[in-house]
Every structure is written in structure tokens, then in C-alpha cells.
Amino acid sequence: MRKIDLHIHTTASDGADTPTRVVEIAASSGVAAIAITDHDTVSGVAEAAAAGERLGVEVIPGIEVSSDYRDNNVHLLGYFIDAESPAMAPVLSWVRIERETRNEKLCAMLAADGFDIDIGQLRAAYPDAVLGRPHIAEFLMRKGYVSSVTEGFDKYLEVGRPYYLPKRRISLEKAAETIIASGGVPVLAHPLQYGYPLGEVVEMIAYAKSLGVRALECFYSEHTPEQQAWLIHQSQRFHMGISGGSDYHGIRKPHIAIGSGTGRLFVPYPMLSALKALR
After folding, report:
1. In terms of DSSP H, where are the helices of the chain?
2. Second label for 186, Cα 20 to 30 Å away, from 21, 81, 124, 141?
3. Do 168 and 155 contact (CB within 8 A), yes or no?
4. Contact call for residues 111 and 117 (beta carbons, < 8 A)
5. Is 122 within the bounds of a domain?
């Protein structure tokens, strides 16, 4: 059976591979279809789609929107979106300005304490990316301040560390509304990754369902078989669809491969057809 991967990041956000390279890897791995789901941007979709046409890989235009739910950063995937939709533009613009302001403040804080970094250097190092903390951590690694991106987060950028800055996010309601208005199917990403007890996960799923979220990401590279089965049960309980993807980021998450994650993940092609029917 043909396999798919509906959760992939590129250099358009915090992935390590270009959209073209992502499609090349998918083609060489026997993956029939992928969704480009960069964080809060659709700028990698066109390039990936062109590569998909050339290499015979079906490319689904998508996005992963960072949204607020109970003061937590909950992600909503959007599939089959119209990247040129007028409904998407103001939200992406707001998110971009928020990110840029936060990045500038963070770089200024680091520079004030003697780090060789400024926003101009960061933009030059990652000219096509939606900048965020992963890029800053990697830049600090390049400069020799830390030995890895993980150390950069653990030492400087994570919650409670000296250079952490909270960010404002749109509401989960607004994220769902925007994806739907852009012709897309909203899907709750990796519901078990937010640190909630199972009872609160059920509450989150019920709330997402009430907003028009149509599916759950049940197949995910970090899920155990038991977690996957539990989420499939919840999708059936709430009459929602099922999605799946690796959350591929290239070398920034080296244990995750396109189409396979840690080896447990296999997302069959018919799942994509079922998601299309939810539009």
C-alpha cells in the first residue's frame, strides 16, 4: 500500500531542507503524497508543488498554525488551503509582525550581554525562513556559544531561561476559522504532545470539534501504538477524521524521517482521500 506523510517542515519555517529537497527525499523514499505544513507560513508550498509535478509526488498545500488554548501553544494543521486566500493574508501578516518583533527583542537582549548576534546577521544567515528560536539557537551554535541547538534552548531560550520571551498567538478559534475560510481542513496536531492529562485532552478535542476542527493527527512519529489507538478511538467518539504525519524537520529532528518517523509510523494513502472528503 502506498504511504503518505502529512506533516513536513521546510526551510520556509524551521525545517533544515528546502521544499525541493523535501520532495526529492519523499520521492526516493517511496512516499506518494506529502503535505507541506510550515509554521505560520505558506511560502514553501509553490516550490514544493513544482518539484512534486516533476518527480511524481502529490503535494498538499498546508500550514501549521500556532494558536492559543488555555495559555498553551496548541498547533492546528490546515490541509488543502488556498495559499492566496484573502482570509489567510491578515493572519499571516499579524503572526509575521509578532515574530519579527520578538526576534528583534531577543537578539537585542543577547547582544546587550555580549553575544555576537543581531537581527541583521540572523536574517542574512536564514534569508528565506520564518525566523524563530530554533534559528537563534542554531546561530548561537555556529558562533560557538553552545554545542547544539538543544543546548541553546536548555541554556538560554527555553521557558524560565534568561532569554526566553513569551509570544502572543491567535486563538484556536481564529486559527480554525481562518483555515476553513481559506478552503482548508483544520486538523488538531499531535494532541498528546501538549502535556495535558487524558481527561483534559478529551476536553481540548471536544472544544476543537465545536470550532469546526475536522480531524485528529492520530498517526504521529512520537506516538506509541497505545497512544495512536487511543486517539483513533477519540476520533471515532467525536465523529472526526484521522490524519498522520512525521513532523519532519530534517537534521533538526534527526530521529524523524519522511514517511517513517522512528519506524513505527505508516500512514496509508486512503487516509488522504478521506481527509479530502472533509472539505
Report:
1. 19-28, 45-55, 88-112, 119-125, 133-142, 149-152, 172-181, 198-210, 225-237, 270-276
2. 21
3. no
4. yes
5. no
Q: Residue 205, Cα to own-chain centre: how many angstroms? A: 18
When divided into structural domains, the chain yields a total of 1
What the block records as the C-alpha cell of 250 is 530534517
Neighbours of 138 (CB within 10 A): 21
Q: What are the tens digits of pLDDT across the range 185-236?
A: 999 999 999 999 999 999 999 999 999 999 999 999 989 999 999 999 999 9
Q: Say if CB 278 and CB 239 are below 8 A apart.
A: no
Question: What value does the mean pLDDT take over residues 148-156?
Answer: 95
- Which range marks the domain in which residue 47 is found? 3-85+183-276
Q: Is 178 helix (H, G, I), strand (E, B) or coil?
A: helix
Q: What does the DSSP assignment read for 26-66?
A: HHHTTEEEEEE--BT--TTHHHHHHHHHHHT-EEEEEEEEE
Give the DSSP H/E element, type plus range, for residue 67.
strand 58-69
pLDDT exceeding 90 applies to what percent of the chain?
85
Kindly report the CATH number assigned to the domain that includes residue 23.
Answer: 3.20.20.140
29 is a domain residue: yes
Residue 167, all three cell numbers = 509570544
Q: Are 6 and 62 in contact (CB under 8 A)?
A: yes
Whether 32 is in a domain gets the answer yes
Q: Would residue 164 count as lying in a domain?
A: no
Sequence-distant contacts of 270-275: CB under 8 A, at least 24 apart: 270/1, 271/4, 271/6, 271/219, 271/242, 271/243, 271/244, 272/4, 272/6, 272/33, 272/58, 272/60, 274/241, 274/242, 275/6, 275/79, 275/80, 275/185, 275/187, 275/215, 275/241, 275/243
